[in-house]
Amino acid sequence: MLYARGALSPSPEQIEYADMLHRLATGDLYACRKLADDAEVDDHIIGFHAQQAVEKALKVALVLADSELPHTHDLELLVEQVKGAGTTVPDELSDTEWLTPWAAELRYDEPIALDRMAALAAAESASGWAASLLADAKLPQPDPDPGRKSREEAPPAPEP
Question: Residue 5 pairs with which residues in a beta bridge?
Fold first, then answer.
C-alpha cells in the first residue's frame, strides 16, 4: 500500500478530493508539456506549472494519508510532511525543492534560467506517482478479520 493510515483506508470524500487535486496537477503537467519546447514562453511560466504539478501531487498523498494540508508552496516541507504521514516519496520527488521559488517568488523577480527538461521530468514523475496512489486507494480493501461473519451471515442471537 502506498498510502498509510494504519488499518484504515481513505474515505470516499478523501478520494474524491485527491482525484480533484490530481486533475489539477495533470492540467499543470499538460501546460508544461505544451510550453516547454517553446522558446517564446518565459521560464517562469513553465517553472510555475511544474512546481504546481509537484505540489498538488504531494497534496494528493497528504489527503490520502488523512494528513493536514498546509497552505504552502514549499516542496521540501510538503515532502517531509508526506514522509511523516507514512507515505514513501519517490527519490526523484524528494529533491524537488529547487522548484519552490517558481511558485511565486520568481514570477515577480528578475528571471533566472530554468532547466525546463528537469522541471518537466519532475512534473511527469509527480503526476504518475499521484495517479498510482489514487489507483491503490481505490482498490477494494481486504477484510481485516476474514473469519468474522457479517450481520447478514451470523445466526440470530438466542432470545433470553
Answer: 7
Where are the domains positioned within the chain? 12-138
pLDDT at position 55, please? Answer: 97
- Tell me: the pLDDT tens digits for 74-133? 999 999 999 999 999 999 999 999 999 988 776 666 667 899 999 999 999 999 999 999
Q: What's the rounded Cα separation, in Å, for the pair 94 and 119?
A: 14
Indicate the CATH number for domain 12-138: 1.20.120.330
Q: Which sign, positive or negative, has the C-alpha torsion 55, 60, 61, 67?
A: positive
| pLDDT, the chain, mean | 86
Residue 7 phi/psi, 5-degree rounding, is: -90, -5
Burial of 68 from C-beta contacts in 10 A (0-12 / 13-18 / 19+): exposed
Range list of H helices, 12-69: 12-35, 43-64
* Residue 7: strand pairing partners: 5
Q: What is the pTM of this model?
A: 0.82
Query: At which residue does the C-alpha cell 514523475 appear?
Result: 125
- Closest by CA position to 55, among listed 38, 71, 41: 71
